Model the fold of this input.
Amino acid sequence: MTRALLVLLCLLALSAPALSQAMQYERPVDTAPREKDIGGGYTTPEVQKPLPRGAWLLILDFALLGAALAASVWLTIYKRSRRAVVWLSLFSLVYFGFYREGCVCPVGSLQNVAVALTDPNYRIPILVTATFFLPLIVAALFGRAFCGGVCALGAIQEFVLIKPVRVPRRLDQALGLLKYAYLGAAIWFAIQPAASRDFLVCRFDPFVSIFRRTGFAHMYAIGAAFLIGGMFVGRPYCRYLCPYGGLLSWCARLAPRGVSITPGRELDCGLCNDACPYGAIEKMRADQAGCLYCARCYRSCPVDRKESGLIAIEEIRPA
Amino acid sequence: MSLRATRRATLKGISRAAALLGMSGAAAFLVRKAEGRVVWQIDTARCINSRAGEVGVKVCDLCLKECVVTQSAVRAVNEYSQCGRCNICPAYFNVTSAVSEKGVPSEKLCPRDAISRKPIGEVDPSDPANNFYEYVIDEAKCDGCGKCVMACKEPAGLGSIRLVVRHNLCVNCNSCAISTACPKDALTQLTVPESISASSRPAHSQS
Done:
């Protein structure tokens, strides 16, 4: 007890000089001195104001989006190469996802477009408008090329899909309606007056915190849940929740071209039916609204092997 | 059957043309009003660290903690024209630390040593306490923790240091995480007159 008291006293004695030396702070001036009071030819420096990200970088983003869309169409419906689509997805995941940290993305931009269309005081840059409309226009002409090799949110799910499970068609269709409800809710909350406005799609973006390696716990949890689910159910966010996917599938229904299982170029054998993890092949024909441009059906097609003589077609006669 | 197929194809073509036309119309409307864009800014009069009257309260470091950008998009900025150029700047020095042999506090306040101090104007080397000093914040080091902002405030300082959203760092989230967390709703959105990209200077509100 006495020893403890002694230690305490020693400590106090040691710290006392330091305490007594802490100076009483006094402000010497009441107003900022002017240049002539400072003298010596002093000029007040400019306050540092770094410029926003350069215009050409934003234009580069948009150009890369356009190029990736063109590549997705070319590689999928003309080259029919799954391998090339995988490389394109990897590029998009790295650039649009991890490097640009998932922003600006067409998925979230739908809210900004909705606000800008309804609120006269809200403006969006031309490049955001272009980012929103370009994939939709491509979808109206060629199908959902954006979903395939371009969308970073799609790509991250594409790479975790290891053991696809077929979702019963009825359930698949019913769950698919969720994205339209989400689309409606996202627009509804976005077009509220500025004070009560909310951006649901961004708030519950499942993968943006993974791209940024930072974020709220709930965002990480949603992302992890989708990635774990996505190991067995192909791209669950894209098929059941993505509100932009809803818009894209409306446009894709109108497309004159798209992923097609053509009797002349493919063998009408039905192997592609099992290869499609997204339930987008029905009666051996691709459903444009649900097709996510992954080109798995083309990889599964044995037509190349038949042409190179590795396999032959045999008619099965009923016994 | 073939008639039905033709009719369906025609209908599809018409809907497609209508959809493309509608999208172009909406895009044209947005492009025409796109002479500006919306950015986040901090209202100095609301921010706890800079607003008058909030003295003796804890420094708010939510700008540092909440921002989704690593090292935050918020920086402390010294508005030089309003700076007192004090010898012992309460934002530069930890004024409660012991006095060194140079007659100034021995410790600095900034945990990242982002502020530099140099004498300006007519310098009298024999009387350093009577000189004016310039305080420059290194933007690469500053992370917007707010300590210097709180220290440089009436009555101790003149309040020339404020927290500012740096638009070269801000990724312009639709729901800014700092604005969601800020207890004083100090983050507001401001429309600035910039077209496509923002190549011109951002309009920081400094007042």
About this structure: Chain B has four helices and six strands. Chain B touches chain A through 76 residues (CB under 8 Å). The beta strands of chain B are 37-42, 74-78, 115-120, 132-137, 161-165, 187-192.
